[in-house]
Design goal:
- This is Methylthioribose kinase.
- The protein is an alpha+beta fold and about 400 residues long.
- The chain has two domains: about 100 residues, Phosphorylase Kinase, domain 1; about 280 residues, Aminoglycoside phosphotransferase (APH), C-terminal lobe (Aminoglycoside 3'-phosphotransferase, Chain: A, domain 2).
- Helices cover about 50% and strands about 15% of the residues.
- The chain contains 14 helices and twelve strands.
- Strands 1-2-3-7-6 form a five-stranded antiparallel beta sheet, sandwiched between helices.
- A hairpin with a 4-residue loop joins strand 6 and strand 7.
- The structure holds 5-S-methyl-5-thio-alpha-D-ribofuranose and magnesium ion (MG).
- 5-S-methyl-5-thio-alpha-D-ribofuranose binds next to helix 6.
Length: about 400
């Protein structure tokens, strides 16, 4: 058995060659390390003679974004490959296929999606994806319903909760999303121009209470198997296809955390529009598209989730009159709150977003940061009162006016 070490490109090629039925044993293969995320090595292996290609993703024993001083469990590679396989069993067209997982090397062999782009990049180029709302709402409804106590035998679900205990990756979220942005933490990366707004957040006790409530639910509410990091950098997209990747943060938590992550990242792009187009009409138009997408996703998610519940619900008590409406309302409220937390952490926390940070004009960047903080904090403060998705769109409109 090969003991763990970070693969070189030559070793990645040798490993790819050893996988049965993928490449001819003597064929020419080339490898490029293309990982641009915060945590892993990603090798793109291709066979020029046939055009065939695969991805080898290897977890590093530390967080690449910080360096070797931040050790990180390799078990996240197992979690990721097992979550991908569950997602594939529930919505096979919306995730990459996993061919193999090598535990010792923390290495997953999966479908190459280079014909797609990372959605964050696509949104920064202001592309539109007409099928995205249908795709992501179907992914969310199926992945969340069938792994919850509504769609699954409750004892089997508990076994699955055990399988996805993910303490180290959850700790990253507990700190970077639900703690550090609300105090003067060393991990923060505060843009000097908005120090006043950030200090306001550090001193806002009403806000801290709402964040503590959301953090409590993240810590304790094992509602469904979450992707756990469903931002637009975890989505590969093209006009007719969407693929959800990278579920290494997967664990059982509150459904609204995943839905909120998608909305937060659409809204961060919404906030950044003044940095990406000088034309008032065109950015207003793209902002309307982003808000319409948020509404479309929620509406479709709710419809699909209710329909799965009505057709395939396994729990007698969940059929009690009024329970489904109450449940969906709680998910919506969580979605508001987590969307807000996920916006705030991307402005002055450790890991930020290119939608904002790559804006060249300093005043447009500052405006994007301020809009994101304004909208993020208002979503958090409003979350326990939210009744319809339209309120999210209204808060977004208010933040830019
Ligand atoms: C140390 S990891 C920083 C961030 O990158 C991941 O994508 C997660 O969002 C995490 O919080
Ligand atoms: Mg990731």
């Amino acid at each position: 058995m090969t003991s763990y070490h970070a693969l070189t490109e030559a070793e990645a090629i040798a490993y790819a060659r050893s996988i049965p039925n993928l490449f001819a044993p003597d064929s020419e293969l080339s490898s490029r390390e293309i990982g641009d995320g915060n945590l892993n090595l990603v090798f793109h292996i291709s066979e020029p003679s046939t055009g065939r290609s695969i991805i080898l993703k290897q977890a590093l024993p530390y967080a690449k974004v910080v360096g070797e001083s931040w050790p990180l469990t390799l078990d996240r590679a197992r979690i990721e490959s097992e979550a991908l396989m569950i997602h594939e069993s529930l919505c096979s067209d919306l995730v990459p296929h996993v061919w193999a997982f090598e535990k010792e090397l923390a290495l997953t062999v999966m479908q190459d999606l280079s014909d797609h782009v990372i959605m964050r990049k696509g949104l920064m180029e202001r592309n539109r994806y007409p099928l995205f709302a249908e795709h992501i709402s179907r992914f969310l409804a199926n992945a969340l319903f069938y792994t919850s106590d509504l769609g699954r035998n409750q004892q089997e679900k508990k076994e699955s909760v055990k399988q996805f205990i993910n303490p180290e990756l959850c700790k990253i979220t507990e700190d970077l999303i639900f703690d550090d942005p609300y105090r003067n933490a060393d991990t923060n990366n505060v843009p000097p121009a908005i120090m006043d707004a950030v200090e306001h957040i550090w001193n806002d006790k009403e806000l801290h209470l709402e964040v503590a409530i959301l953090r409590n639910s993240f810590l304790t509410n094992a509602q469904a198997l979450l992707h756990g990091d469903l931002h637009t950098g975890s989505i590969f997209i093209k006009q007719d296809s969407t693929k959800v990747i990278d579920p290494e943060f997967a664990f059982y938590g509150p459904m609204g955390f995943d839905i909120g992550a998608v909305f937060a990242n659409l809204l961060l792009n919404f906030a950044a529009q003044e940095g990406w187009s000088a034309d008032v009409h065109s950015r207003a138009d793209y902002r309307s598209y982003l808000l319409a997408t948020v509404k479309d996703i929620w509406t479709r998610f709710e419809g699909e989730f209710r329909s799965l519940w009505n057709r395939y619900g396994v729990d007698r008590m969940s059929k009690t009159d009024g329970y489904q409406d109450w449940y969906i309302q709680q998910v919506l409220r969580d979605t508001f709150g987590y969307a807000g937390c996920k916006m705030v952490r991307r402005v002055h926390g450790l890991a930020q977003v290119a939608d904002i940070n790559q804006i060249e004009d300093e005043s447009a960047k500052e405006r994007a940061q301020r809009i994101s903080l304004q909208l993020g904090t208002s979503l958090i403060k409003h979350h326990r009162r939210a009744v319809t998705i339209d309120e999210m769109l209204e808060l977004a409109d208010k933040a830019i006016n």
